[in-house]
Design a protein that fits this description.
two-stranded antiparallel sheet, 9 strands, Spore Coat Polysaccharide Biosynthesis Protein SpsA, Chain A, globular, seven-stranded mixed sheet, alpha/beta, Glycosyltransferase family 2 protein
Length: 236
């Protein structure tokens, strides 16, 4: 049986995104088939009011000043004590497309997730020599060749089995804000696994017109001297 722990991360003063993503989370919660928790990184009173109305009594983790994406994800995962089998992650600029019904959509994701090491919108990214060296130093490195280009599910919406997350401690403590999705692609490659494409009914990292990967950059961006993975913009 597949059951999802749905986690979402909200940031800053963006009530329009809180409304858009929050409505999706409420619809998924109303199916009665998921567990739900949200992270709030420097979320404004306006955005918090929207979420409080849409998602009353939902478990939250708040950080002000923010602790960035990967530490918040780790905190949310560490606090979970339920029986879910898979993580379903939403950035706050990801949501279901208008008119998509949560229950049948959830059944479609469940059918795909049962036999997939990860699901999401798939992208490729060139790895720098420093990034390839970093992969070789990780405890999940198996000796398999580290390719120059890696396939990965973009991090705005991702499904990953919780046993894989726990086994390999993803995202690792070394990660701050950028690159957890790229690292997941490298980790899967080392294990001889390949993520599967799933974007049906989704707007992932979407702008106001719901175009995928077109949401404006907001908040903190790591630079190459701050983190091995630096800053990047995925290309389909």
């Amino acid at each position: 049986m597949v059951k999802f722990l749905v986690l979402a991360l909200f940031y800053g003063d963006h009530p329009e995104l809180a409304q858009r993503c929050g409505q999706t989370l409420r619809a998924l919660r109303n199916t009665g088939q998921v567990d739900l928790a949200v992270g709030l990184n420097e979320v404004s009173p306006r955005s918090r009011a929207v979420l409080d109305e849409l998602l009353p009594d939902v478990e939250t983790e708040s950080a002000d000043p923010q602790i960035y994406k990967c530490p918040m994800m780790r905190r949310l995962l560490a606090g979970y004590r339920g029986d879910a089998t898979h993580l379903m992650w939403f950035d706050d600029d990801s949501c279901l497309q208008p008119g998509v019904q949560a229950a049948p959509w959830l059944r479609a994701v469940t059918a795909r997730a049962e036999h997939a090491p990860a699901l999401g919108a798939l992208y490729t990214q060139h790895l720098t020599p420093a990034q390839r060296d970093w992969v070789r130093q990780q405890p999940w490195f198996t000796g398999r060749e580290v390719p120059e280009t890696i396939l990965f599910p973009t991090g705005g919406w991702t499904v990953v089995p919780l046993d894989l997350i726990r086994r390999f401690d993803w995202p690792g403590e070394a990660l701050g804000h950028n690159g957890s999705d790229l690292v997941l692609g490298a980790l899967l490659h080392q294990q001889g696994l390949e993520p599967q494409a799933f974007r049906m009914g989704l707007a992932i990292n979407a702008d106001a017109q719901l175009r995928e990967s077109e949401a404006p950059r907001r908040g903190y961006v790591e630079t190459p001297d701050q983190h091995t993975w630096g800053t990047w913009r995925p290309e389909p």
